[in-house]
């Protein structure tokens, strides 16, 4: 699979993904359930953060989970084993060149993957090939341009922009959420429906303050610090001030908003 993962493959990133998945589980996955006997392809499963949630929500479906990173697959398999998940299998595969027969899956699930690909349309076409006629696809992506907060801060926005530009340099699109309808439609899917899922966080929601604002979003932005500084996009002092201002939104009088987009369609 062409393209690079902007956040890297560190243990810290693995922890961030787990925090993100568990914190957003109800918001993103409460309406993702598959019938008994369904064969579901999870494309780009990473470290299995979403896999465990999917498998638990649909214990009588069977999931084939693929990723380009063998180390991520090892961690995903280990996590599934530790959680007692048995209705999954893991395979090393390229999304652009999937090793499956046409029409072999009843459904496809893709979460936080297209944003990292230089050719998301080609990936959707490849996924469509391995789905049966009438099969379902679910695609979930974020959109960093949907982020707003109080207290507002130009320095914080500059730090976020460093992540957006870094991802674009690697061929991805951190603002892809707003593009899901045309992307999925142009790949030939029908009955395309997009549902925005907004996360709103204030001090009355301490689990979201920690799990999303601090441990998911701010951690994600902070992760590009070294590359942003080395590239000359921003100096160290300004970036650090931006992160400090983002942390300020997680204080008692701060608020933070972000929108995810969930797309469902049929082949």
Would you give an account of this structure?
This protein is of the alpha/beta class and 267 residues long. The protein has a single domain, classed as 3-Layer(aba) Sandwich (Rossmann fold), CATH 3.40.50.150. Helices cover 42% and strands 23% of the residues. It has nine helices and eight strands. Strands 1, 2, 3, 4, 5, 6, 7 and 8 form an eight-stranded mixed beta sheet that branches. Helix 3 links the parallel strand 2 and strand 3. Helix 1 packs parallel to helix 2. The radius of gyration is 18 Å and the shape is globular. The two termini are 23 Å apart.
Number of strands: 8
Could you list the spans in which at least 5 consecutive residues all have pLDDT below 50?
5-10
CATH fold title: Rossmann fold
Proportion of helical residues:
40-55%
How would you briefly describe this protein structure?
The protein is an alpha/beta fold and 267 residues long.
Summarize the SSE layout with pairings.
Blueprint: H1 11-29, E1 39-43, H2 49-57, E2 62-67, H3 70-82, E3 88-92, E4 105-111, H4 120-129, E5 131-142, E6 148-150, H5 154-169, H6 180-186, E7 190-201, H7 206-222, H8 225-231, H9 236-248, E8 255-266
Parallel strand pairs: 1-2, 1-4, 2-3, 4-5
Antiparallel strand pairs: 5-8, 6-8, 7-8
Helix pairs in contact: 1-2, 1-7, 5-9
């Amino acid at each position: 699979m062409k393209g690079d993962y902007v956040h890297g493959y560190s243990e810290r990133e693995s922890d961030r993904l787990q925090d993100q998945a568990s914190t957003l589980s109800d918001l993103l996955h409460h309406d993702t359930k598959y019938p008994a006997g369904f064969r579901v392809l999870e494309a780009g499963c990473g470290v299995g953060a979403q896999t465990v949630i999917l498998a638990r929500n649909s214990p009588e479906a069977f999931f084939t989970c693929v990723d380009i990173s063998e180390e991520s697959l090892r961690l995903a398999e280990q996590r599934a084993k530790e959680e007692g998940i048995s209705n999954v299998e893991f395979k090393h595969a390229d999304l652009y060149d999937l090793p499956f027969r046409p029409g072999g899956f009843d459904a496809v699930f893709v979460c936080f993957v297209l944003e990292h690909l230089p050719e998301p349309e080609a990936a959707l076409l490849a996924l469509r090939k391995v789905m049966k006629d009438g099969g379902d696809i679910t695609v979930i992506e974020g959109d960093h341009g949907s982020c707003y907060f109080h207290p507002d801060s130009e320095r914080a926005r500059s730090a976020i922009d460093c992540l957006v530009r870094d991802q674009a340099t690697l061929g991805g699109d951190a603002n892809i959420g707003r593009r899901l309808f045309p992307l999925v439609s142009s790949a030939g899917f029908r009955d395309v429906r997009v549902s925005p899922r907004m996360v709103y966080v204030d001090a009355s929601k301490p689990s979201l303050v920690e799990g999303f604002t601090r441990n998911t979003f701010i951690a994600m932005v902070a992760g590009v610090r070294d590359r942003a500084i080395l590239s000359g996009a921003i100096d160290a002092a300004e970036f650090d001030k931006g992160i400090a201002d983002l942390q300020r939104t997680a204080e008692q009088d701060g608020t933070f908003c972000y929108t995810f987009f969930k797309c469902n369609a049929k082949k």
